[in-house]
Design a protein that fits this description.
By secondary structure, the chain is α/β, with parallel strands linked by helices. It is built from five helices and 14 strands. It has one domain: Metallo-beta-lactamase, Chain A, CATH 3.60.15.
């Protein structure tokens, strides 16, 4: 899902494009897509980087990643297991492995891999910092883990994506726990096909953390978020 217009300074745009962790993020200078599955290659134009969090079917589609890469000549940043699976379809100079604690730069945009509490081979979550310092925590389909509190305290997050369904053990309650730990300015529930999951997350967040903005996304709609004051 391409985003035609550019955000202003200190802003980013994002689109949720499937019922899993598929997100397009557009900063003033770069466009990133995360875990593209169940979409068409032609839906993505002018992509600078594809990010893959782990190898499960709802996060890695090798043929799709290859096709988007061919069309856009973008960089592919992937966890170690997904990197191995993509070696035969992505040129070596365009494929970058990322491990927990490491960082990759795409222009002035920073992508740092953090831990993921999810039963995959070597899963990661992504802390993305725009060229203007807007901070986005994409938790893929991770359950909460204690270090999220440290990430939130250190980074002063602007947006956190919170898994509320489908993945093992996840629920609106575990999604809320991610929001509680990270204390982001904006919390976005995702990774579910159930509107009731999204609604329940919003209800819990409003009751327990009324100062945090809950943004319930619609698939394919463009949202704007800004840097924390």
């Amino acid at each position: 899902m391409s985003i035609g217009k550019n955000p202003s300074k200190n802003e980013v745009f994002f689109v949720w494009f499937n019922r899993y962790a598929g997100i397009t993020i557009k900063t003033p200078s770069k466009t990133l897509i995360i875990d593209p599955v169940d979409v068409k290659p032609r839906d993505f134009k002018n992509v600078d980087a594809i990010l893959i969090s782990h190898e499960h079917y709802d996060h890695l589609d090798q043929a799709l990643v290859s096709e988007i890469h061919k069309n856009t000549l973008c960089v592919v940043v992937a966890d170690p297991t997904s990197t191995r699976r993509l070696q035969n379809v992505i040129a070596p100079e365009k494929l970058r492995e990322i491990q927990i604690g490491s960082e990759v730069k795409v222009g002035e945009v920073s992508i740092r891999a953090e831990r993921s509490n999810h039963p995959a081979a070597a899963p990661v979550t992504f802390l993305i910092t725009s060229e203007d310092g807007v901070k986005i925590f994409h938790t893929s389909d991770s359950l909460p883990f204690p270090e999220m509190a440290t990430i939130g305290e250190k980074e002063k997050l602007d947006v956190v994506f919170c898994t509320v369904g489908i993945a093992p053990g996840t629920s609106p309650e575990t999604g809320f726990e991610i929001a509680r730990l990270t204390k982001s300015k904006v919390a976005v529930p995702y990774h579910t096909g159930s509107p009731s999951d999204l609604k329940k997350f919003a209800e819990i967040l409003k009751k327990e953390m009324p100062k945090v903005t809950c943004l319930i996304p619609e698939v394919g709609k463009i949202y704007q978020v800004s840097k924390r004051a």
